[in-house]
Amino acid sequence: GRRMTAIFKREFRSFFHGMLGYVLTAFLVASSGLYFLARCLIYGLTDFSYYTLYQTIFMLLLYIPVLAMRSLAEERHSRTDQLLLTSPVSVWGIVLGKFFACCFVYFVATTLGGILPAIVMSTFSTPSWGEIIGNYIGALLYGAAMISIGVFISSLTVSQIIAAIGTFIISVLLMYICLLYT
């Protein structure tokens, strides 16, 4: 419990210690904002739930591999994995702390990306909040599933680049399978 929270805090702080967390958050917020703006201007649709969230799923193909690539591969590369494994935290605590930190960064970016469209929708239309919240929860769960794959692949390799490419390839394959059978 408390030890996993320490791993979570350490990992979350490390995202925003450098530029990675800020750049990734800005990327996802900007891409969802641009998709929403394009849908509003081109088609006159102020629906954030289906159109914008569905289009930003494709942005997650770039976002999630970069987010998850450093979780465990960086520990191995910098040789701090032995120190981490001999700490009083269980392996489950380490993995879950890193996973939840990645998920929280994704949650923050997705939430920030939805604030402005929510304001626009509530001002210029009567949105179906149940549909929007349902699609938002679906996007969060999809992101968590892809992050779990990314953290797993990151645990298999020393190289962050290989972890990112592996996560990207599996994400594309899963998305292709999903599109093939819908």
List strands and helices in order, with pairings.
Blueprint: H1 2-17, H2 20-43, H3 48-68, H4 70-77, H5 81-85, H6 91-124, H7 129-156, H8 160-180
What's the short version?
The chain has about 180 residues and is mostly helical.
How would you describe this structure to a colleague?
The chain has helices at 2-17, 20-43, 48-68, 70-77, 81-85, 91-124, 129-156, 160-180. It is mainly alpha-helical and 182 residues long. It is elongated and about 55 Å long. The mean pLDDT is 82.
Characterize the main sheet: none
**How helical, in percent, are the residues?**
over 70%
- Radius of gyration over alpha carbons? 18 Å
Summed up, the helix count is 8
- Beta-strand portion reads under 5%
Structural class: mainly alpha
**Quick one: how many beta strands?**
0
Query: Helix and strand string, N-terminal first?
Result: HHHHHHHH
The shape, in one word, is: elongated
Mean pLDDT: 82
Which segments are poorly predicted (pLDDT under 50) over 5 or more consecutive residues? Answer: none
